[in-house]
Protein backbone atom coordinates (compact mmCIF):
# COMPACT_ATOMS: atom_id res chain seq x y z
CA UNK A 1 0.00 0.00 0.00
CA UNK A 2 1.18 3.51 -0.82
CA UNK A 3 -0.38 6.52 0.92
CA UNK A 4 0.16 10.03 -0.45
CA UNK A 5 -0.81 13.13 1.49
CA UNK A 6 -2.41 15.27 -1.20
CA UNK A 7 -3.19 18.05 1.28
CA UNK A 8 -2.96 18.42 5.04
CA UNK A 9 -4.37 21.89 5.68
CA UNK A 10 -7.48 22.93 7.55
CA UNK A 11 -10.50 24.51 5.88
CA UNK A 12 -8.60 27.75 5.09
CA UNK A 13 -5.39 26.07 4.00
CA UNK A 14 -2.06 27.42 5.22
CA UNK A 15 -1.11 30.25 5.15
CA UNK A 16 -4.51 31.90 5.48
CA UNK A 17 -3.91 34.48 2.74
CA UNK A 18 -1.18 36.75 1.41
CA UNK A 19 0.80 38.11 4.38
CA UNK A 20 -1.60 36.37 6.76
CA UNK A 21 0.85 33.75 7.92
CA UNK A 22 -0.39 32.91 11.40
CA UNK A 23 2.52 31.29 13.26
CA UNK A 24 4.21 29.58 10.35
CA UNK A 25 7.54 30.16 8.65
CA UNK A 26 6.43 30.77 5.07
CA UNK A 27 9.94 30.02 3.82
CA UNK A 28 9.44 26.38 4.79
CA UNK A 29 7.50 24.66 1.98
CA UNK A 30 6.16 22.10 4.47
CA UNK A 31 4.05 24.89 5.98
CA UNK A 32 2.24 25.51 2.68
CA UNK A 33 -0.77 23.25 3.02
CA UNK A 34 -3.68 22.70 0.67
CA UNK A 35 -6.96 21.35 2.00
CA UNK A 36 -6.99 17.78 3.29
CA UNK A 37 -7.21 14.78 0.95
CA UNK A 38 -5.29 11.52 0.80
CA UNK A 39 -4.60 9.14 -2.09
CA UNK A 40 -4.19 5.41 -1.44
CA UNK A 41 -2.75 3.01 -3.98
CA UNK A 42 -3.58 -0.59 -3.11
CA UNK A 43 -4.36 -3.74 -5.13
CA UNK A 44 -3.79 -1.80 -8.39
CA UNK A 45 -6.48 0.72 -7.39
CA UNK A 46 -6.32 4.42 -6.58
CA UNK A 47 -8.67 5.23 -3.71
CA UNK A 48 -9.23 8.86 -2.78
CA UNK A 49 -10.39 10.01 0.63
CA UNK A 50 -12.28 13.31 0.29
CA UNK A 51 -12.27 15.78 -2.60
CA UNK A 52 -10.74 18.99 -1.33
CA UNK A 53 -11.19 22.37 -3.08
CA UNK A 54 -7.55 22.03 -4.21
CA UNK A 55 -8.02 18.59 -5.74
CA UNK A 56 -7.17 19.35 -9.36
CA UNK A 57 -3.73 20.71 -8.47
CA UNK A 58 -3.17 17.93 -5.93
CA UNK A 59 -3.83 15.17 -8.46
CA UNK A 60 -1.74 16.97 -11.07
CA UNK A 61 1.20 17.18 -8.66
CA UNK A 62 0.72 13.49 -7.84
CA UNK A 63 0.75 12.67 -11.59
CA UNK A 64 -2.52 10.85 -11.01
CA UNK A 65 -4.94 10.42 -13.93
CA UNK A 66 -7.12 7.62 -12.58
CA UNK A 67 -9.35 7.42 -9.50
CA UNK A 68 -11.15 4.12 -8.94
CA UNK A 69 -13.30 5.24 -6.00
CA UNK A 70 -13.79 8.11 -3.57
CA UNK A 71 -14.48 7.71 0.15
CA UNK A 72 -16.05 10.67 1.92
CA UNK A 73 -15.49 11.41 5.60
CA UNK A 74 -18.26 14.06 5.85
CA UNK A 75 -19.99 16.76 3.83
CA UNK A 76 -18.17 19.94 4.90
CA UNK A 77 -17.13 21.87 1.81
CA UNK A 78 -13.39 21.68 2.50
CA UNK A 79 -13.78 17.90 2.07
CA UNK A 80 -16.28 17.78 -0.79
CA UNK A 81 -16.16 20.88 -3.01
CA UNK A 82 -13.47 19.43 -5.28
CA UNK A 83 -16.04 16.91 -6.55
CA UNK A 84 -16.35 18.57 -9.98
CA UNK A 85 -12.67 17.75 -10.59
CA UNK A 86 -13.67 14.09 -10.79
CA UNK A 87 -15.18 14.90 -14.18
CA UNK A 88 -11.73 14.90 -15.75
CA UNK A 89 -10.89 11.54 -14.17
CA UNK A 90 -14.17 10.14 -15.52
CA UNK A 91 -13.54 11.54 -18.99
CA UNK A 92 -9.97 10.26 -19.23
CA UNK A 93 -10.91 6.75 -18.14
CA UNK A 94 -14.42 6.66 -19.62
CA UNK A 95 -15.76 5.48 -16.29
CA UNK A 96 -18.44 6.32 -13.75
CA UNK A 97 -16.55 6.79 -10.48
CA UNK A 98 -18.21 5.39 -7.35
CA UNK A 99 -18.50 7.68 -4.33
CA UNK A 100 -18.80 5.88 -1.00
CA UNK A 101 -20.94 7.96 1.34
CA UNK A 102 -22.60 7.43 4.71
CA UNK A 103 -26.39 7.22 4.67
CA UNK A 104 -26.84 10.36 6.80
CA UNK A 105 -25.25 12.64 4.17
CA UNK A 106 -26.39 10.79 1.06
CA UNK A 107 -29.45 12.94 0.40
CA UNK A 108 -27.67 16.29 0.83
CA UNK A 109 -24.68 15.22 -1.27
CA UNK A 110 -26.95 14.20 -4.15
CA UNK A 111 -28.93 17.43 -3.80
CA UNK A 112 -25.83 19.64 -3.74
CA UNK A 113 -24.13 17.84 -6.63
CA UNK A 114 -27.11 16.62 -8.61
CA UNK A 115 -25.51 17.08 -12.03
CA UNK A 116 -22.57 14.92 -10.92
CA UNK A 117 -24.61 11.99 -9.60
CA UNK A 118 -27.79 12.18 -11.67
CA UNK A 119 -26.95 14.42 -14.61
CA UNK A 120 -28.66 17.66 -15.54
CA UNK A 121 -29.65 18.99 -18.97
CA UNK A 122 -26.52 18.61 -21.15
CA UNK A 123 -24.46 17.05 -18.34
CA UNK A 124 -24.30 13.29 -18.01
CA UNK A 125 -23.56 11.87 -14.56
CA UNK A 126 -19.94 10.90 -13.99
CA UNK A 127 -20.16 9.53 -10.45
CA UNK A 128 -22.45 7.07 -8.68
CA UNK A 129 -23.40 6.92 -5.00
CA UNK A 130 -22.61 3.85 -2.93
CA UNK A 131 -23.85 3.75 0.66
CA UNK A 132 -21.23 2.48 3.07
CA UNK A 133 -21.59 -0.24 5.68
CA UNK A 134 -19.38 -0.77 8.72
CA UNK A 135 -17.39 -3.16 6.55
CA UNK A 136 -17.33 -3.18 2.75
CA UNK A 137 -15.01 -3.92 -0.15
CA UNK A 138 -13.81 -2.10 -3.23
CA UNK A 139 -12.49 -4.81 -5.50
CA UNK A 140 -10.07 -6.85 -3.40
CA UNK A 141 -9.65 -4.08 -0.82
CA UNK A 142 -11.51 -4.54 2.46
CA UNK A 143 -12.44 -1.36 4.32
CA UNK A 144 -13.81 -0.83 7.81
CA UNK A 145 -15.43 2.38 8.98
CA UNK A 146 -17.14 3.93 11.98
CA UNK A 147 -18.30 7.37 13.06
CA UNK A 148 -16.45 9.73 15.37
CA UNK A 149 -17.62 13.08 16.73
CA UNK A 150 -16.82 16.41 15.06
CA UNK A 151 -18.79 18.82 17.21
CA UNK A 152 -22.34 19.08 15.89
CA UNK A 153 -21.86 16.39 13.22
CA UNK A 154 -20.24 12.98 12.80
CA UNK A 155 -17.33 12.01 10.56
CA UNK A 156 -16.22 8.64 9.23
CA UNK A 157 -12.95 7.09 10.29
CA UNK A 158 -11.69 4.66 7.65
CA UNK A 159 -9.40 1.69 8.26
CA UNK A 160 -7.73 -0.25 5.44
CA UNK A 161 -5.56 -3.04 6.76
CA UNK A 162 -3.24 -1.49 9.35
CA UNK A 163 -3.75 2.04 8.04
CA UNK A 164 -6.44 4.41 9.36
CA UNK A 165 -7.56 7.96 8.62
CA UNK A 166 -9.43 10.09 11.18
CA UNK A 167 -9.74 13.73 10.20
CA UNK A 168 -11.80 16.41 12.01
CA UNK A 169 -11.79 14.49 15.29
CA UNK A 170 -13.26 15.82 18.53
CA UNK A 171 -13.79 12.52 20.34
CA UNK A 172 -14.67 8.86 19.88
CA UNK A 173 -17.94 7.19 20.79
CA UNK A 174 -18.04 4.41 23.40
CA UNK A 175 -15.25 1.89 22.72
CA UNK A 176 -14.80 2.69 19.05
CA UNK A 177 -11.22 3.82 19.60
CA UNK A 178 -10.32 0.17 20.18
CA UNK A 179 -11.06 -0.47 16.51
CA UNK A 180 -7.84 1.43 15.80
CA UNK A 181 -5.46 -0.82 17.70
CA UNK A 182 -2.46 -2.44 15.99
CA UNK A 183 -2.01 0.25 13.35
CA UNK A 184 1.13 0.72 11.29
CA UNK A 185 0.01 4.24 10.33
CA UNK A 186 -2.63 6.56 11.74
CA UNK A 187 -3.31 9.88 10.03
CA UNK A 188 -5.29 12.04 12.43
CA UNK A 189 -6.54 15.61 12.34
CA UNK A 190 -4.89 18.26 14.53
CA UNK A 191 -6.36 21.69 13.86
CA UNK A 192 -4.34 23.62 16.46
CA UNK A 193 -2.71 23.17 19.87
CA UNK A 194 -5.69 24.23 22.00
CA UNK A 195 -9.09 22.52 21.87
CA UNK A 196 -11.73 23.75 19.44
CA UNK A 197 -15.49 23.14 19.79
CA UNK A 198 -15.27 20.65 16.92
CA UNK A 199 -11.66 19.45 17.16
CA UNK A 200 -9.55 17.89 19.89
CA UNK A 201 -6.40 19.77 20.87
CA UNK A 202 -2.80 18.57 20.96
CA UNK A 203 -2.98 17.05 24.45
CA UNK A 204 -6.14 15.06 23.74
CA UNK A 205 -4.88 13.73 20.43
CA UNK A 206 -1.71 12.63 22.17
CA UNK A 207 -3.80 10.81 24.77
CA UNK A 208 -5.38 8.84 21.94
CA UNK A 209 -1.98 8.13 20.41
CA UNK A 210 -0.52 6.97 23.72
CA UNK A 211 -3.47 4.64 24.18
CA UNK A 212 -3.42 3.18 20.66
CA UNK A 213 0.36 3.13 20.20
CA UNK A 214 0.39 3.07 16.40
CA UNK A 215 3.79 2.44 14.87
CA UNK A 216 3.62 5.85 13.20
CA UNK A 217 1.27 8.84 13.48
CA UNK A 218 0.93 11.78 11.10
CA UNK A 219 -1.03 14.97 11.80
CA UNK A 220 -3.26 16.42 9.09
CA UNK A 221 -5.91 19.18 8.77
CA UNK A 222 -3.55 21.77 10.31
CA UNK A 223 -4.08 25.52 10.35
CA UNK A 224 -1.43 28.20 9.97
CA UNK A 225 -1.25 28.28 13.78
CA UNK A 226 0.92 25.16 13.58
CA UNK A 227 4.46 25.63 12.30
CA UNK A 228 5.97 22.42 10.97
CA UNK A 229 9.30 22.60 12.80
CA UNK A 230 7.82 23.86 16.06
CA UNK A 231 5.17 21.14 16.08
CA UNK A 232 7.75 18.49 15.21
CA UNK A 233 9.85 19.57 18.19
CA UNK A 234 6.89 18.91 20.50
CA UNK A 235 6.19 15.45 19.11
CA UNK A 236 7.30 12.17 20.62
CA UNK A 237 9.10 9.51 18.60
CA UNK A 238 7.15 8.18 15.61
CA UNK A 239 4.77 11.18 15.64
CA UNK A 240 5.13 14.03 13.15
CA UNK A 241 3.16 16.57 11.12
CA UNK A 242 2.41 15.56 7.56
CA UNK A 243 3.17 17.79 4.60
CA UNK A 244 1.69 18.07 1.11
CA UNK A 245 3.14 15.48 -1.23
CA UNK A 246 4.43 13.22 1.56
CA UNK A 247 4.33 9.55 0.54
CA UNK A 248 4.40 6.56 2.87
CA UNK A 249 4.93 2.94 1.83
CA UNK A 250 3.24 0.30 4.01
CATH A-level architecture: 4-Layer Sandwich
What percent strand? 25-35%
CATH class: Alpha Beta
- Rounded average pLDDT: 97
CATH topology: Metallo-beta-lactamase, Chain A
Q: How many helical stretches?
A: 7
Segments where pLDDT lies below 50 for 5+ residues?
none
Number of domains: 1
Give a short account of the largest sheet: 7 strands, mixed
Q: Which series of helices and strands comes N to C?
A: EEEHEHHEHHEEEEEEHEHEE
Helix content: 10-25%
Outline type: globular
Strand order of the largest sheet: 6-5-4-3-2-1-14
Let me know the CATH homologous superfamily. Ribonuclease Z/Hydroxyacylglutathione hydrolase-like
Distance between the termini: 5 Å
Rg from alpha-carbon coordinates: 17 Å
Derived structural class: alpha/beta
Number of strands: 14
Give an overview in words.
The chain has 250 residues and is an alpha/beta fold. It has one domain (2-249): Ribonuclease Z/Hydroxyacylglutathione hydrolase-like (Metallo-beta-lactamase, Chain A). 20% of the residues lie in helices and 28% in strands. It has helices at residues 55-61, 77-80, 86-93, 103-112, 114-117, 202-212, 228-234; strands spanning 2-7, 37-42, 45-49, 69-71, 97-101, 127-131, 135-138, 141-150, 153-160, 163-166, 185-189, 217-220, 239-241, 247-249. It has a seven-stranded mixed sheet with strand order 6-5-4-3-2-1-14. It has a seven-stranded mixed sheet with strand order 7-8-9-10-11-12-13. A hairpin with a 2-residue loop joins β8 and β9 (153-160). The longest helix is centred in the last third of the chain and has 11 residues, at 202-212. The termini are close together. The mean pLDDT is 97.
